[in-house]
Design goal:
Mean pLDDT: 88
Strand content: over 45%
CATH architecture: Sandwich
CATH topology: Jelly Rolls
Shape: globular
Structural class: mainly beta
Number of helices: 0
CATH superfamily: Nucleoplasmin core domain
Number of strands: 9
Low-confidence stretches: none
CATH class: Mainly Beta
Order of helices and strands: EEEEEEEEE
Number of domains: 1
Largest sheet: 5 strands, antiparallel
Radius of gyration: 14 Å
Length: about 110
């Protein structure tokens, strides 16, 4: 069975929450296989990533410190998590235009 891999990117995320997928929900049941957040500023920044399930914000990471020029991988090894239709993932920083984000997913993994 073929799998449909997806990637979502955000550039220059700042103090306002930016969402993945861009302004919409994930499709059906997707598996998030990778999240990388990079600090593109000259100083250390604080970042957060959370999923809103339609009612609640569920944090993947909150107030993580990322040094200048560094990145963090929020999912490593064989770890994965499933998002459902209606879920939206958000990223935010304490500094304007500070983060580049890359999210990799498998679309409709249960089919």
């Amino acid at each position: 069975m073929a799998q449909n891999f997806r990637r979502y990117t955000l550039n220059a995320v700042g103090t306002g929450a930016a969402d993945v997928p861009d302004g919409s929900d994930f499709d059906s049941y997707d598996a998030i296989i990778s999240i990388r957040i990079a600090n593109v500023t000259a100083g250390t920044v604080t970042a957060e990533c959370y999923i809103n399930d339609g009612s609640n914000d569920i944090h993947i990471v909150k107030d993580i410190s990322i040094p200048s020029g560094s990145s963090v991988e929020l999912i490593d090894g064989a770890n994965r998590f499933v998002v459902a239709s209606g879920d939206r993932m958000y990223f935010k920083s304490d500094t304007s235009s500070a983060l580049d984000v890359w999210v990799s997913a498998v679309d409709a993994i249960s089919t």
